[in-house]
């Protein structure tokens, strides 16, 4: 077994990087924040990772108590990986790091976007919903379903079917919904092009897709004259 590299620094942040600072480690954590996944699911949601690296990262994270293996109950009875309670505490860290990264002047949209990454971005980049009328929205992204809700000024989105939603938004790919909610497209255009579908209250759909915005890009550093 390879010896874990360490910064050998007393700082808690340095130790955190010892644990989750290796390439792909935090992305594995991101993919598990919404619930357990099979190894094959992780491979599909992280298409750039090799099987050897994924196996190593899961082994590392399990050894350090961030991830554990479990078995889903019948009829699935599949072996899965899930975050420990301590590992789940990384969610605000992952979301804050994501929002910070969006502010980079060099950020550009990539070719891959997982469903987990999209849902976490909605949690992170929702506008202030104080005073926003209540709404219940079902989200179907590929084979995944979620319930989004605004109630009493609070926004939530969790893996679940919506209970009598006002509207259901569907997309085959997470990227299609991301393009819509982050302002690069319009609902009627997306529907006409077939990238997004909806059923239910159109006004609620329009209100929902306007709830989100990426943070402002940070100002580039001014050159320092020597």
TrEMBL record:
Alphabetical list of InterPro entries matching this protein: HTH_HxlR (IPR002577), SCP2_sterol-bd_dom_sf (IPR036527), WH-like_DNA-bd_sf (IPR036388), WH_DNA-bd_sf (IPR036390)
The keyword Cell membrane is assigned to this record: no
All residue ranges annotated as the HTH hxlR-type domain in the record: 11-109
Keywords of the record: DNA-binding, Transcription, Transcription regulation
GO molecular function, one term: DNA binding
Superkingdom assignment: Bacteria
Cross-referenced Pfam families: HxlR (PF01638)
PANTHER family reported in the protein's UniProt record: TRANSCRIPTIONAL REGULATOR, MARR FAMILY, TRANSCRIPTIONAL REGULATORY PROTEIN
Protein name as it appears in the record: Putative transcriptional regulator
Organism: Saccharomonospora marina XMU15
